[in-house]
Design brief:
Blueprint: H1 3-10, E1 21-33, E2 38-40, E3 45-46, E4 50-68, E5 72-75, E6 78-79, H2 82-92, E7 100-108, H3 118-134, H4 140-150, E8 162-165, E9 178-181, E10 188-193, H5 204-214, H6 221-237, H7 241-260, H8 271-285, E11 291-294, E12 300-305, H9 309-315, E13 320-322
Parallel strand pairs: 5-7
Antiparallel strand pairs: 1-4, 2-3, 4-7, 4-8, 5-6, 8-9, 10-12, 10-13, 11-12
The structure holds ligand 2P0.
Length: 326
């Protein structure tokens, strides 16, 4: 199935625009059980299920309007960089009425390419804005699948709180969507530890493709990842942070082990990333309940609870602490 056919299956009724523009917001999300590797690159079908938590204070606001002529795409009030604009235009081709263009105004409250997956909140917000513009009135499940076509992790940014993206089994991708996990955890904190906000050496899309193609350890990943998701679900249900933190940290380090064993190696860490990991392990030795996760970049995301916030911030004075269920 091609992405165009996939879209026709999800939206059989191609409405003309019902309103002048659509506008929507979506949060960024941080995976606690990671997505790494695709089984279908055109439909963004993952090798494994993944589980995330959204950060309601950070995300993307997008406004979309149909226009005559070519697409006009802005990012934070400026014409968008070419690569960004081309990626959006290719995605918009899936929904484009013949001969029309889209004006897309995107505002990110996270630095683009800072390792905070602005593509996830970006495609989720865009799909929600399109749903409004065309008055599709799609379910969250279908919107999640459309966002997935833009960027895999965007499937999870449709939701606040914890979200689970099901791998799915079908080749048509119609069973690969995210859904929210109905658990509140008001004392949970996520700390953003910025190590380096420069552009990463290799995009996650390319990095995961190389890993699947060349990493000898990768064959162990899909089964490990599914088990991670199930174990994390149990820890979340019990609101057991030592358990969840331990599972999330092990999951992230195992993903990074597959990246490092890729040929040529995909290494997102810097010396400062490693030094921060060691500081976190030292804090745990002292009885502070803090764990970390890392994505396709050098920055760390810390997990802890309200009771340990002061101790964690004392060690990392530049930490930005967020309250996912605030
Ligand atoms: C995740 N990452 O689960 C993992 C962990 C990075 C490391 O999802 O190719 O930008 O657009 O589907 O979604 C980043 O990958 O990749 C990502 P595409 P995406 O959050």
């Amino acid at each position: 199935m091609t992405p165009h056919e996939f879209v026709r299956r999800l939206i059989p009724h191609r409405n003309a625009p019902q309103v002048q523009h659509g506008q929507a917001w979506a949060p960024v999300n941080i995976a606690l059980a990671k997505y790494w590797g695709k089984r279908d690159t055109a439909l963004n079908l993952p090798q494994n299920s993944s589980l995330s938590i959204s950060l309601p204070q950070l995300g993307t606001d997008t406004r979309v309007t149909l226009i005559e002529g070519a697409d006009r795409i802005t990012l934070n009030g400026q014409p968008a960089p070419q690569a960004f604009a081309q990626r959006l235009s290719r995605f918009l081709d899936l929904f484009r009425p013949e001969g029309m263009g889209f004006a897309v105004e995107t505002h990110n409250s996270v630095p683009t390419a800072a390792g905070l997956a602005s593509s996830a909140s970006g495609f989720a917000a865009l799909v929600k804005a399109l749903d409004q513009l065309f008055d599709w009135r799609l379910s969250a499940q279908k919107l999640s699948m459309l966002a997935r076509l833009g960027s895999g992790s965007a499937s999870r940014s449709l939701f606040n709180g914890f979200a689970l993206w099901h791998r799915g089994q079908q080749t048509d991708g119609l069973d690969s969507y995210a859904e929210p996990i109905d658990i509140q955890w008001p004392d949970l904190r996520i700390g953003l530890l910025e190590i380096d906000t420069g552009t990463k050496p290799i995009s996650s899309t390319a990095g995961m493709q190389q890993t699947v193609a060349t990493c000898p350890l990768y064959r162990a990943w899909p089964e490990f990842a599914e088990a991670s998701v199930q174990a994390q679900l149990a820890a979340i249900t019990a609101r057991d942070l030592p358990q969840l933190g331990d599972l999330a940290e092990h999951n992230a380090l195992t993903m990074h082990a597959t990246m490092i064993a890729t040929h040529p190696s995909v290494l997102y860490w810097t010396a400062d990333s490693v030094s921060a990991m060691q500081q976190i392990w030292a804090l745990r030795q002292q009885g502070v309940g803090v764990w970390f996760t890392m994505d396709a970049g050098p920055n760390l995301k810390l997990l802890f609870e309200k009771t340990d916030q002061r101790a964690v911030e004392a060690t990392f004075p530049t930490l930005k602490t967020l309250v996912p269920f605030g």
